[in-house]
Amino acid sequence: xxxxxxDKSLLPALVALLLLGSCVSLAVGAMTIGWRDVLAxxxxxxxxxxxxxxxxxxxxxxxxxxxxxxxxxxLMVGGTLGLCGAVMQGxxxxxxxxxxIIGVSAxxxxxxxxxxxxxxxxxxxxxxxxxFKDLQWFLLPLxxxxxxxxxxxxxxxxxxRGKSVVMMLLAGVAINALAGAAIGLxxxxxxDRALRDITLWQMGTLxxxxxxxxxxxxxxxxxxxxxxxRRAPALNALLLGESEARHLGVDVVRLKQLMIVLTAIAMxxxxxxxxxxxxxxxxxxxxxxxxxxxxxxxxxxxxxxxGGLLLVLADTxxxxxxxxxxxxxxxxxxxxxxxxxxxxxxxxRQQIF
Amino acid sequence: xxLEVTDLTIQYPRATAPLLEHISLGFxxxxxxxxxxxxxxxxxxxxxxxxxxxxYRGNIQLFGRPQADWYRRQNDHRALARRYxxxxxxxxxxxxxxxxxxxxxxxxxxxLSRAEQEERIGHFMQRADVWHLRxxxxxxxxxxxxxxxxxxxxxxxxxxxxxxxxKILLLDEPTSALDLKHQHDVLALAREVxxxxxxxxxxxxxLNLAARYADRLVMLANGLVQADGNPAxxxxxxxxEQVYGYRGQLVDVAGYRALL
Lengths: 353, 260
What we know:
Structural class of chain A: mainly alpha
Number of strands of chain A: 0
Strand order of the largest sheet of chain B: 6-7-8-3-9-10
Distance between the termini of chain A: 16 Å
Largest sheet of chain A: none
Function (chain B): Part of the ABC transporter complex HmuTUV involved in hemin import. Responsible for energy coupling to the transport system.
Order of helices and strands of chain A: HHHHHHHHHHHHHH
Strand content of chain B: 25-35%
GO molecular function, one term (chain B): ATP binding
Mean pLDDT of chain B: 92
Protein name (chain B): Heme ABC transporter ATP-binding protein
Strand content of chain A: under 5%
Shape of chain A: globular
Helix content of chain B: 25-40%
Largest sheet of chain B: 6 strands, mixed
Organism (chain B): Microbulbifer harenosus
Mean pLDDT of chain A: 84
Order of helices and strands of chain B: EEEHEEHHEHHHEHEHEEHHEE
Keywords (chain B): ATP-binding, Nucleotide-binding, Translocase, Transport
Shape of chain B: globular
Oligomer: heterodimer
Number of helices of chain A: 14
Radius of gyration of chain B: 18 Å
């Protein structure tokens, strides 16, 4: 029997690690806060009069307005990346189909950069006044989703519907190159403010987290995740092949449309909120498959949890490594994920995932 | 006829001539039909057209209803999946499902309880002689073992049909990767399945195996049905030469006729 963890051990372990990681992420940073003060500060922030706690006002502010939304954003974006990675690998029937590698993130990035540049002055991470702010709140994820959907569709068609790994990866290279050129062009016409935003955000950062952006990410992850989880048995059948899935009663065309559209929307929301964070969609589902097997009924929810955990940990490292400055979290995930990708390519010769 | 193909023409987009031209064939309940013919004569394409995966001209009816009708509504599609299965020639499943899990995927169109699923998985894995592989990872198996696991999956799928429902089983070269013993085992199993209210259509390359286990042989070549009938009539050197371009010799051994 192959080594596999049971749900009785994997689920509690993941939840415990998530709680632990979240506490650490709240406590450390440019200003270290003791765990008592974390608790007291959060209570004070959410319900100022309650218990008359003696906690510095700035703790409550840092925790409630900066670290907590950032933590939740990390959980949501990481969860979205883990989920989208798992779903795309199912769609392409290949474990190398990471949204970053095959160019979906880049496509979403172009869409978002387009909005950023042409809406400069009312950039993503700031609250510019006026009606445009409201519009952008909606326009940015929308443009990113459209860009992401377009790239997914293109890679899927070019890669012979997932049959050809080589074509899929080459299509990813082409789309990444095209997106790079498009963003480069946009950089030229951008003003200084938009330029800085694009640059930071190309490397991926959770620094722009506000309760508003957190809410969008959470909503998209919950709805998209639930819809995809409901189709988990069909996703399992699809791993056998499109023809086999059709013979098992799956409406393959509609299932694929659902997968492409939902992952594109989710990636659009994630990319517009946190920029281009790579490799989580690659590392997380692969690890879960090693621990629990490829069954989507477990793979999808566990990938959401583990993706959130990984991004929160990476973000905590990014915030503390060079404190009081902070690194873009995308650099950390790439440092972690790129060697893993190389390892996977190495393993690809055995053809078992 | 459970499966009826009328005036079927298949032409690939950039081909100069049709692969199959005005073919009409019917497949009856309880019969094993072997589709024979040289490489590239359209055997697999015929199965793919029957499965609706290929553009064609003509008419295909499954259980007396036009094929496209079955796929219009999700409920019909699922109902069809409970009584109509295809064993593919190759499987390219790279993800690390155990063999037991692969067989379980066959039960997806049904709504059995966990215990009933386990029982059927066990039953059909034993029938296909792969029970000992149940905890092995599917991608790590040999080609023949994979083929038998997939067979167990398709058989468990057809076990979802309501009692008394007629069924169709398509097998695309089910013996191509099998050793001698399992070639015979699998075809004997196909015979048994046919006895259970099922029309079995199988693509085969081995004429002698086909003659021994099939009720009916259909020989395709040059886009046409060259011969269609019972094995005793069709196992003739002249006919075989006309279809395959190879003239064998007919021998009688212990009551079996074989073409060498």
